[in-house]
Amino acid sequence: MNNNGIKKIVLAYSGGLDTSAIIPWLKENYGDCEVVAFVADIGQERSDLEGVEQKALSSGASSCYVVDLREEFIRDYVYPVLQTGALYEGSYLLGTSMARPIIAKAQVELALKLGADAVCHGATGKGNDQVRFETTYAALAPHLKVVAPWREWNLRSREALLDYLKERNIPTTASLEKIYSRDENAWHISTEGGVLETPWNASNQDCWVWTVSPEDAPDQPELVTVKVEKGKVTAVNGKAMSPFQCLEALNELGAKHGVGRIDIVENRLVGIKSRGCYETPGGTIMVTALRGVEQLVLDRDSFKWREQLGLEMSYVVYDGRWFAPLRKSIQAAAESLAEDVNGEVVVKLYKGQATAIQKQSSSSLYSEEFATFGEDEVYDHSHAGGFIRLFSLSGRIRALNELKK
């Protein structure tokens, strides 16, 4: 294969089966080029990072860089999306979608620093991640060449990848028994494959990793107090913490009570439907708290606008357009709305549910004087008649016209 003048490639490396095979494949098919492994620490299981550098070197990488992106990921990617209220197709909290642009951005930064000619990812040709990686590459460093092995090689199965590594005496902890495909970061963990490939199959215990089954969760509810400032969670149970620390604390509480599970069939960008089980315990609590404060402070039209922003943002993020002007424009509008989204919410965690049961805000538009069903002195009921007459005027005129006919 012609290597197109590529001498150094920076690979987004996880230490899993695919990227372990990619390193020797690149060296064999791109003129024995230098392969640098880049590992993004975005809050995945610590055991996944243990020994990852040695694993990369054993596979043929010249060096391996592990970069801690945990705080930046939650602060600069997750929190901005939460401000918009984005939910892809009504339920998915975009855990994988938000992680890809920060990984690709840090990968590009390393490639530029090291003077690399190309960047490489291990996403398949069927999924969304190839788009998310490559739109980021294009936006930040369009001159870098992109290598996508899954679109080039003839290795089409887990068995083929294992055989490929075995032939080259490259050690791997992967096996044929691993039937699920998982993606994990601080925000969520997803599970695909196995029994989930048939939508009529119910998910089993193996499909859930972080959270206990709601049926097995504690029989007593637990209350957690969440502080919100400008549409961002800043404290849990009275303790001010960084975004990542807030998420860690809420993940632990939510997982214990089985909070944050969804089992969905979604529409991938490439046109394929896929089924997955997603666990986002802390994130679900955060969303519950944020929406609780919004209910107090956003007027009807502002809330409607925020919902429209969230819908649009869900597609922008899912489709990998993080660095597009559209995402920045939506974000600017959401940040403006979030100026008054300040308050405190008590969330009850019980048997898989997170419910806002108490909420308060200094910016609240809720007035007990106006909302009461008891006697009040601030609202004249007779005023509603004139309002209704004007509100229904066009319908009245249309009906009168019909009578004339």
TrEMBL record:
Residues 8-171 form the Arginosuccinate synthase-like N-terminal domain. InterPro entries: Arginosuc_syn_C, Arginosuc_syn_N, Arginosuc_synth, Arginosuc_synth_CS, Arginosuc_synth_type_1_subfam, AS_cat/multimer_dom_body, Rossmann-like_a/b/a_fold. One of its GO terms (cellular component) is cytoplasm. Keywords: Amino-acid biosynthesis, Arginine biosynthesis, ATP-binding, Cytoplasm, Ligase, Nucleotide-binding. Its EC number is 6.3.4.5. GO terms for biological process: argininosuccinate metabolic process; L-arginine biosynthetic process; urea cycle. Residues 180-396 form the Arginosuccinate synthase C-terminal domain. The keyword DNA repair does not apply. The keyword Amino-acid biosynthesis applies. ATP binds at residues 12-20, 40, 122. L-aspartate binds at residues 124, 128-129. It catalyses: L-citrulline + L-aspartate + ATP = 2-(N(omega)-L-arginino)succinate + AMP + diphosphate + H(+). It holds the Pfam family Arginosuc_synth. It is found in: Cytoplasm. Coiled coil: none annotated. L-citrulline binds at residues 92, 97, 128, 132, 181, 190, 266, 278. HAMAP family: Arg_succ_synth_type1. NCBIfam families: argG, PRK00509.1. PANTHER family: ARGININOSUCCINATE SYNTHASE. This is Argininosuccinate synthase. The gene is argG.
